[in-house]
Amino acid sequence: MTPGDSLQQGPFFVDTNVFLRYFTNDVPDQAAAVERLFLRAAAGDLQLVTNTMVLAELVWVLESYYRLSRPRVVEHVVAVASMDGLVMPESDIVVDALFAYADSNVDFVDAYNACWMKSRGLDHVATFDVKHYSRFEGLQMHSWAH
Predict the structure, then answer these.
(1) Of 28, 35, 73, 91, which cross-links 81 as Cys (Cβ 3.0–4.6 Å)?
(2) Is 127 a member of any domain?
(3) Is residue 95 part of a domain?
(4) Secondary structure (DSSP) of the chain
(5) Phi-psi group of 138: left, alpha or beta (phi > 0 → left; psi -120 to 50 → alpha; rest → beta)
(6) How far apart are CA 29 and CA 66, in angstroms?
(7) Per the domain annotation, does 6 fall within a domain?
(8) Do 109 and 83 reside in the same domain of the chain?
(9) Whole-model pTM?
(10) Are residues 21 and 78 in the same domain?
(11) 49 in the Ramachandran plot: left (φ > 0), alpha (ψ -120 to 50) or beta?
């Protein structure tokens, strides 16, 4: 099946590489196909879905491989999380985590975990990574290293 063929069924899971082609345009034909896909989803012709693991990988690849600054990474991933026609569970937590990642100088996954815990009323953390988690107000670290 080629891009655009019989896309009335679905929903369609969107993998990290699709977002990467769109943002980087490093494979122009694929980037153009992705843009058409996103426009169809925004128009309501089809539904796209993704998850937090895809966005975590997107953050990591944009930062480590493409060497984008944190503000640029946040800009791109917030655009994904708020995209018309894309369903992503816990997108509000992801957006909160993106801003914490940018503002607190912590890894995205640590920021996501802290925001996820707060969204569920959890404030005790079993971790050896006290340095990062201590940057989040209201969290109590517990380390059994001693």
Answers:
(1) 91
(2) yes
(3) no
(4) --TTTTTTS--EE--HHHHHHHHH-SSHHHHHHHHHHHHHHHTTSS-EE--HHHHHHHHHHHHHTS---HHHHHHHHHHHHT-TTEE-TTHHHHHHHHHHHHHHT--HHHHHHHHHHHHTT--EEE-S-HHHHTTSTT-EEE----
(5) left
(6) 19
(7) yes
(8) no
(9) 0.84
(10) yes
(11) beta
Assess whether 30 and 69 both reside in one domain: yes
Separation of alpha carbons 42 and 73, rounded Å: 22
CA gap 146, 5 in Å, rounded? 60
Amino acid letter, 118: K
The residue whose two tokens read 């569970």 is 89
Domain count along the chain = 2
User: What distance in Å separates the CA atoms of residue 101 and residue 87, rounded to the nearest whole number?
Assistant: 22
Range of the domain at 132: 105-146
User: Look-up: residue for tokens 């896909």?
Assistant: 37
Task: Summarize pLDDT for 40-97 with one digit per residue, the tens.
Answer: 999 999 999 999 999 999 999 999 999 999 999 999 999 999 999 999 999 999 999 9
